């Protein structure tokens, strides 16, 4: 009897997607805070660090408990979402983006509350540049959520397989940004003040701070995961899931290649040269094969 009551309560939560978004936002924040860890500078013993914003807590044990609990809760909710057939599949991407926003906010909170000597330039950049960016993402999410709540039946029959070309383009772009974030900067470790040589200079905005990579990459990964989940849970999976996975892999390779090309080092970038000579032609051939396969599926 108790198990049935708990199951019904869980189902009622899953049936209220806005409430589910709030849960994922909060748990994502705790998970992001715990997984990022303390970003304070290592100072000599007895040196008092300066804070732009003092942290509410700085206990590794508490962080570990919060992070582990948040990750378990997130896994349970996402597993329940996939099993809950009554939930509109269009909520998948919105829920995952909400989770990504929460995780980024936890990451940003660590940077803002980091201790050091002097002014915390990273925190100022987060407050002045990155939080407005996440505000834009949150505003788009709120608009999409509001539209889905106001007209739940509008476009209910639409899913990624209904527009496979557009979905594959989205997956290529999302895979590239997600791989860019996950691979990270491949520049050589040099002594402070040393000037790096670049075959291709990195993007000026992205190279300002790794936190922008976290924001863009996590949102891109959430959107791609939502597209794949919707496809995998519909009858179109046998026809389009392989194509969509290939498009995501193509984007991931593109993001990895761009990291190699924009890596700084001393002297020639041999890896970047190999990418230009061998990698890009193979990537173009893979894209052509993907387009040919997509055309055949559309004509069938």
Structure description:
With 300 residues, the chain is an all-alpha fold. The chain folds into two domains: 11-151, no CATH class; 159-300, no CATH class. It has helices at 2-14, 17-36, 60-83, 91-112, 121-150, 164-183, 210-232, 237-261, 270-299; strands at residues 197-198, 264-265. The longest helix is centred in the middle third of the chain and has 30 residues, at 121-150. It starts with a helix and ends with a helix. The model is unreliable at 1-11 (pLDDT under 50).
Brief descriptors of the model:
single chain, 9 helices, 300 residues, flat, 1% strand, mainly alpha, 2 domains
Number of domains: 2
Largest sheet: 2 strands, antiparallel
How many whole angstroms does the radius of gyration measure? 22 Å
Identify the strand order in the major beta sheet. 1-2
Structural class, from secondary structure content? mainly alpha
Number of strands: 2
Q: Give the N-terminus to C-terminus distance in angstroms.
A: 51 Å
Number of helices: 9
Q: State the low-pLDDT regions, or none.
A: 1-11
């Amino acid at each position: 009897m108790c198990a049935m009551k708990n199951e019904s309560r869980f189902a009622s939560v899953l049936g209220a997607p806005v409430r589910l978004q709030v849960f994922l936002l909060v748990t994502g924040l705790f998970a992001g805070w715990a997984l990022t860890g303390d970003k304070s500078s290592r100072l000599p013993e007895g040196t008092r660090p300066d804070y732009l914003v003092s942290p509410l807590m700085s206990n590794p044990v508490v962080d570990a408990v919060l992070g582990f609990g948040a990750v378990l809760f997130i896994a349970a909710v996402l597993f329940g979402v996939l099993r809950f057939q009554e939930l509109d599949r269009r909520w998948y991407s919105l829920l995952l983006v909400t989770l990504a926003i929460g995780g980024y906010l936890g990451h940003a909170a660590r940077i803002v509350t980091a201790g050091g000597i002097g002014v915390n330039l990273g925190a100022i950049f987060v407050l002045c540049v990155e939080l407005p960016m996440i505000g834009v993402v949150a505003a788009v999410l709120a608009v999409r959520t509001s539209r889905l709540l106001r007209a739940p039946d509008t476009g209910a029959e639409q899913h990624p397989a209904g527009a496979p070309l557009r979905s594959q383009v989205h997956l290529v772009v999302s895979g590239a940004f997600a791989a860019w974030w996950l691979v990270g900067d491949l520049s050589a470790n040099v002594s402070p003040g040393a000037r790096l040589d670049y075959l291709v200079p990195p993007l000026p905005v992205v190279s300002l701070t790794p936190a922008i990579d976290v924001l863009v990459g996590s949102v891109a990964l959430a959107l791609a995961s939502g597209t794949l989940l919707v496809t995998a849970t519909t009858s179109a999976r046998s026809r389009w899931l392989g194509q969509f996975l290939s498009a995501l892999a193509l984007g991931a390779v593109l993001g990895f290649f761009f990291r190699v090309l924009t890596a700084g080092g001393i002297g020639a970038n041999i890896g970047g040269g190999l990418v230009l000579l061998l990698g890009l032609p193979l990537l173009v051939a893979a894209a052509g094969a993907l387009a040919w396969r997509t055309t055949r599926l559309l004509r069938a």
